[in-house]
Design a protein that fits this description.
Elements: H1 22-37, H2 50-65, H3 74-86, H4 92-95, E1 100-106, E2 109-114, E3 117-123, H5 127-140, E4 151-155, E5 161-165, E6 175-179, H6 188-193, H7 205-217, H8 224-229, H9 235-243, E7 249-253, H10 259-267, E8 276-280, E9 292-296, H11 310-321, E10 325-328, H12 335-344, E11 348-354, H13 358-372, H14 378-388, E12 391-400, E13 403-417, E14 423-430, H15 440-450
Parallel strand pairs: 7-11, 7-12, 8-9, 8-10, 10-11
Antiparallel strand pairs: 1-2, 1-6, 2-3, 4-5, 5-6, 12-13, 13-14
Length: 451
């Protein structure tokens, strides 16, 4: 990443979107009819290029110019109609902003997840407009959103995930979510600046000094200076863990809590002198590394369909490709067992998983692994988790006034099982705790012993 430690500017507020009026909707239909008369077809968004959309925009603009009542705002109207007929309508304006991470539509009301914060943009169009938009996107994607199929999930051409539920299944109007990935990679420095990591109190600053000394003497680490330049926040420990390949890390959290954002940021600390492998079911990770093996494979393949699954690819990579570290975008299925097998063979691995707490995330990892091989039994799977996984970090969505922000909630060191077969968790950091724990000091000692 270029100049990751430089001074960073705060991003602007979300773009102001002018709501569609009745006149706007009528104009879209008027131009659509004129395009049909002229034999001009809107470019398919799945196949169109920037040049094709520009030519279509010019065609729309030429029609508008012939209508005197539309000349005052012809450029805005031409873009609005181009988006409506060849893109995702009014929402295209939001998709062009690199800070937009998710778009929400509920009965005509639009909101966005913008650089980690939730913002309500207001009612931008009648619900009927968004229902027609959802049907149009489904048609463009080769799917159906009618009758007995009132919901659709489609990957847009830019890699965004489009999900829509329409009435009558949705009882409060049309519901649309568009999740974007890889639009803008955030560094740990940017996340620090936005308040993702709470500061440590003065007592714990001596622990940071211990981190620096340990990173400097660790021969695997090629980024001691950058780690030193991080603030006195717990992400410095995570950066050290990744840069020194001292343990396997699982980042847990609810949906939209910033798990992938943190994993992307930490990937910037991977040692450039080591081969890295990244596996995903959808392309979400943005990894800056000069020697990267990357694969995208589904969690499941329907019977009779050619192809391989993520767990099969993961097995091949950790047993035959000899990576120094493996990044699994998210554990969602049978690959959970292969992930644990890899860590138990000494491979360092990083992944994300859904879970509201660290304990819930560990339980979900167990359940996924057991679903892949129920004959192993809970005791064996739990032993694998305790043996292979070293650190669990928890991200969360925190209400700050009228805003929802993503923040690191906890870091726990997994220290094996107790006499009853339960996990021994040493909480190194808890954001909700008034007095930070001193457990971070012990983390390096534990990691050093395991090397």
């Amino acid at each position: 990443m270029d100049n990751p430690g430089a001074a960073l500017m705060q991003p602007p507020t979300p773009p102001k979107i002018q709501p569609l009026t009745t006149a706007d909707l009528a104009l879209i239909e008027t131009v659509r009819e004129e395009l049909v008369l002229r034999g001009i077809n809107p470019p398919s968004w799945r196949e169109s290029t920037a040049d094709q959309r520009r030519r279509f925009y010019d065609e729309v603009r030429a029609i508008l110019i012939t209508q005197p009542e539309n000349r005052n705002d012809v450029n805005r109207q031409a873009q609005l109609i181009t988006d409506a007929l060849s893109g995702v309508g009014l929402l295209d304006q939001l998709l062009r902003d690199p800070y937009i991470e998710e778009i929400f539509v509920r009965n005509g009301e639009v909101a966005v997840e913008y650089d980690g914060s939730f913002h309500h943009l207001g009612k931008l169009a009648d619900d009927r407009y968004f229902e027609n938009l959802a049907v149009h996107v489904a048609d463009q994607g080769g799917a159906t959103l009618r009758g007995d199929r009132p919901a659709v999930l489609i990957d847009l051409p830019g890699g965004e995930r489009f999900t829509a539920i329409v009435p009558r299944l949705s009882t409060e109007g049309t519901a649309i979510n568009i999740r974007t990935f890889g639009r803008r990679v955030r560094t740990l420095e940017e996340m620090e600046q936005s308040g993702t990591f709470a500061g440590l109190d003065p007592v714990e600053k001596r622990i940071i000094q211990l981190f620096d000394a340990t990173a400097e003497k660790n021969t695997h680490s090629d980024m001691p200076q950058r780690i030193q330049e991080l603030k006195d926040t717990p992400d410095r420990f995570l950066a050290w863990l990744v840069s020194s390949l001292s343990g396997s890390l699982m980042i847990a959290g609810e949906m939209g809590s910033g798990k992938t954002t943190l994993l992307n940021a930490l990937s910037g600390f991977l040692p450039i002198t080591a081969p890295i492998a990244a596996l995903e079911t959808f392309r979400e990770l943005e990894i800056q590394h000069p020697f990267l093996l990357r694969t995208v494979a589904p969690a499941e393949v329907p019977s009779g369909t050619p192809g391989v699954t993520l767990d099969w690819v993961l097995n091949v990579i950790y047993t035959r490709m000899n990576p120094a570290a493996i990044l699994v975008g998210e554990v969602v299925g049978n690959e959970a067992l292969q992930f644990l097998k890899a860590t138990c063979l000494g491979r360092k691995a990083l992944t994300t998983i859904h879970g509201g707490t660290i304990e819930e995330a560990l339980m979900r990892l167990e359940q996924l692994a057991l679903a892949a091989a129920p004959e192993l039994g809970l005791a064996a799977v739990r032993a694998m988790v305790a043996m292979g996984l070293d650190v669990v970090a928890l991200m969360g969505r925190v209400q700050q006034g009228e805003r929802v922000e993503r923040k690191l909630q906890a870091i726990a060191l997994l220290k094996g099982l107790d006499a009853n077969g339960n996990y021994c968790l040493d909480y190194l950091y808890r954001a909700t705790q008034a007095e930070p724990l001193a457990g971070l000091q012990k983390a390096y000692l534990k990691m050093e012993q395991n090397q």
